[in-house]
Design brief:
about 450 residues, 6-stranded antiparallel β-sheet, binds zinc ion, elongated, 2 domains, binds tryptophan, disordered N terminus, about 25% helix, alpha+beta, 9 helices, Aminopeptidase, 18 strands, binds calcium ion, Jelly Rolls
Length: about 450
């Protein structure tokens, strides 16, 4: 019986010829092979003048359409046509998705940047509608324009990200996130599971601004905190109505979410004015949902920093600079006897040196020697004890052995820690053993 634990580093990204290999003997393998230096492409500084130019167009659209850009009103569709025109000209593949709400047709605009790994999507979005009371320039022309200008910067840079980039502008958020719910609900679950991250930008130019980072996912929270740390700007966790925007339906569907928010109708405290400037005792946005949410209702510095943070997050999350290269294998080749019609047995693998969470398509390689594999129920157990069913028993599957690679959506699990393969034989007469199993990060 072997008691080795082996760890291999197959740096598939740079090809088999250059692959490194390291075998460690012992119980706690560590990822010791140096990762190849990721060729980080620095995120660009987004010109705030360009973002403001989009805001002035949105203001003109509202002015020409009864003063708003609300769902079901002509100012909404005109806003959508403006954004779509810019994206089409920049080489995006755009799609308009129609839905009905409160007796009016609503529209989402989805834009895909061609290329990247379609199984790993980084999506960023903003709601495009205003309330009926006003033009909605901070809420949410700011998120709309910042996201649009970053999408255009992707095109200008000719960015070829490792992951696939998608952008979304949602309708009818102000009626209860109708457009984003419609988008998420109409995505097949296989497509949903390919979205590694959804980043939301709803109000990023508040006139008396704060810098609030969503804390829904640790890795996505970190990328924004890292950006603001480089600028020497303190951040706080977003708490002003958690889940009050388009990230909520994504989060409910299991997609990791993040984002930035500069504050709405809550009051800035003295401590917040101390760290961010502005006026204590006043709302972050005193014109929130009012007719005065015009192009004058914007703090240019907040808009500039917020837009730059969108670029930073997208560049870093999509070009593989914050995630290790793929292909680190953690394997346990120790044999574990599976008792006939007995209790479950486990075999452990210790994962270390992997930043952040496990992948959404974690590869679980299983090699079990058995005389009737239908007897076997197989689960993957994450470090925190969560289980993922890999295989059910079957009275009719009389074949020998389980030699298979399963995929588990483990994106909500921290990668590092002790993972277990749990195997139970639920029917009598046939027996076998776990020969080896492995996880590929
Ligand atoms: N979604 C709200 C709106 O459009 C604004 C808002 C309030 C918000 N609290 C938030 C957005 C927290 C993001 C995060 O009216
Ligand atoms: Zn909003
Ligand atoms: Ca059996």
């Amino acid at each position: 019986m072997s008691t080795r634990l082996t760890l291999r580093h197959a740096l598939t990204a740079i090809g088999a010829a250059a692959a490194l290999s390291a075998a460690l003997v012992g119980a706690s393998p560590a990822a010791t092979a140096a990762a190849p230096a990721a060729t980080a492409v620095a995120a660009p500084d987004i010109p705030v003048a360009n973002v403001k130019a989009h805001l002035s167009q949105l203001q003109s659209i509202a002015t020409a359409n009864s003063g708003n850009r609300a769902h079901g009103r002509p100012g909404y569709k005109a806003s959508l046509d403006y954004v779509k025109g810019k994206l089409d000209a920049a080489g995006y593949t755009t799609t308009i998705q129609q839905f009905t709400s409160s007796g009016a047709t609503g529209y989402n605009l989805i834009a895909d940047w061609p290329g990247g790994d379609a199984n790993h999507v980084v999506m960023s979005g903003a709601h495009l509608d205003s309330v009926t009371a006003g033009p909605g320039i901070n809420d949410n022309g700011s998120g709309t324009a910042g996201t649009l200008e970053v999408a255009l910067a992707v095109s200008r840079a000719g960015l070829q990200p490792t992951k696939h980039l998608r952008f979304g502008w949602f309708g009818a958020e102000e009626l209860g996130m109708i457009g984003s719910k419609y988008y998420v609900n109409n995505l097949p679950s296989t497509e949903r599971s390919k979205i590694d991250a959804y980043l939301n930008f709803d109000m990023i130019g508040s006139p008396n601004p704060g810098y609030f980072v969503y804390d829904d996912n640790a890795a996505l929270e970190k990328v924004f905190k890292d950006f603001f740390a480089t600028k020497g700007i303190p951040t706080e966790i977003e708490t002003e109505g958690d889940g009050r925007s388009d990230h909520a339906p994504f989060k409910s569907a299991g997609v990791p979410v993040g984002g930035l928010f500069s504050g709405a109708d809550y009051t800035k405290t003295a401590a917040q004015a101390q760290k961010w400037g502005g006026t204590a005792g006043q709302a972050f946005d005193a014109c929130y949902h009012r007719s005065c949410d015009t192009s004058a209702n914007i703090n240019d510095t907040a808009l500039d920093n917020g837009s730059d943070s969108i670029a930073y997050a997208i560049w870093n999350l999509s070009t593989g600079t914050t995630t290790p290269p793929t292909g680190t294998v953690f394997e346990n080749t120790a044999d574990v006897t599976i008792p006939d019609a007995g209790a479950a047995v486990t075999s452990s693998v210790t994962v270390s040196g992997i930043a952040g969470n496990a992948p959404s398509a974690l590869q679980v390689g299983v090699n079990i020697v058995h005389t009737y594999r239908g007897d076997l129920v197989i689960d993957l157990v994450a470090p925190d004890g969560s289980t993922y069913r890999l295989k059910n028993s079957s009275g009719s599957d009389s074949a020998d052995n389980v030699i298979a690679t399963y995929t588990a959506n483990a994106s909500s699990e921290v990668a590092n820690g002790v993972w277990k393969l749990k195997v139970q034989d639920v029917a009598s007469a046939d027996t076998g053993y776990i020969n080896s199993w492995k996880l590929t990060f």
